[in-house]
Amino acid sequence: GTSDTDPDAQYDFMVVSNRLPVDRCSSDEPGCEGGWRRSPGGLVTALAPMMTKTDGAWVGWHGAPDEQIQPFSHGGIDLVPVQLSTQDIELFYEGFSNATLWPLYHDVIAPPEFHRTWWDSYRKVNRRFADAVVHHASHGATVWVQDYQLQLVPKMLREARPDLKIGFFNHIPFPPPEIFAQLPWRKAIIDGLLGADLVGFQRSSDAGNFMRSARRFLGASVKQQQVHVKGSDGQTTHIARAQAFPISIDVQQISELAQNPEIIERARQIRRDLGNPKTILLGVDRLDYTKGIRHRLKAYEELLSDGKVTVEDAALIQVASPSRERVEQYRLLREEVEGTVGHINGTYDTLQNTAVRYLHHNYPIDEMVALYLAADVMLVTALRDGMNLVAKEYVTARTNNDGALVLSEFAGAADQLKQALLMNPHDIDGLKDTIMRAVNMQPAEAARRMRSMRKQILDHDVDLWSSDFLNALKEKVIRDDS
Ligand code: G6P
Q1: Which residue in the list 115, 135, 171, 360 is annotated as catalytic?
Q2: What gap in Å lies between CA 167 and CA 74, rounded to an integer?
Q3: Which residues are in coiled coils (predicted)?
Q4: Is the ipTM of this complex over 0.90?
């Protein structure tokens, strides 16, 4: 443990995530300060005010291999970098995090690989993150650990520092015990998570899956949302609560951008550049096999070949941002998607119009909002997704209450956006019918649906998500030892 005289043990609030909320940049790029830029994404915006208010710090990896960086401050947030070696990146990050846990937790859409060397690295790197917190957290500090890359950290923290309040939030799905059972280290993972006082999930079904696994694999007793864990002395019990806290977006930021005249004009420009199709369909995803991009392309291609739409009627913009490019399954997916896009365009393009405008790029949020404004139909066809914030951003950007959202029931967002056109992306005929319903939707129905979805999101933005979680973390557990 740390002593109260340790000058580094200064933070009352700490967030821990695999990635720090900053990216490297060069000084001529906009927003670049001292070689770093704040990374996009709701988590950063949600937590930034809290961090400054409560003397907080963020612990995470800065994204470069082998580089050791001293703690520094950026945009008012203190950052504590954790180093990853080239080998850690290969075994802990690309291996155990992204080729074992990621596919296992997303319904084994791709086959998870189980390697003992990856697991050893996962444990070792989780220990390094925990050590950084132990060193920097003040007595009684609140620590909020994020996501599947760091599931062992809560238990490591509780053992080293029983004075801490420990929260954990899982941004991705938690699988049913029947699938989780495959993991050779299933007990250690559940045990690691149960070190937290509060374990948060996107959907209540994820929290339910976790509690069933705690019962099945650790023999824990579960009452309501409380998991009772026996200490190693067999005497004391620690209670971890499991609960859903659906994450959201920075509603104000997206609404403001959506009403900015320059961005509205940019949206018109995008439509002209595409040759003025009647309908623009849009997909925006990290290039990941969980997102159902192939299913979406297949449905669209069949609509073209059935003659239900032509390229003048309906063009598809697919933004696929580069992701995890050294992991085998991601390479395969990229080849397949790009082959399919080439095939569709070769078959259906004319000199004026293109069927699929495929963009393997990252765009700044302004350009994303312009795309949302240009799109008549948003396609979110994930085969499994913790939440899917693109769905929430699209709805928030549609300040005129027009446009249609086609949304997979396998995305967490489906629990909140009940007025979307919900569908099962595995059912290609159903997906095609739903796309046609969206394309042909009457303005009155579109407005009724969009208004109700917008209200849901406007009432539940990301500030509410983080304050709900942190308030629940403060609450005392109700002990019922009877
Ligand atoms: C998902 C995960 C995040 C992760 C992000 C990007 O949203 O929940 O933890 O940071 O994907 O993936 P990457 O591997 O590039 O960090």
Answers
A1: 171
A2: 24
A3: none
A4: yes
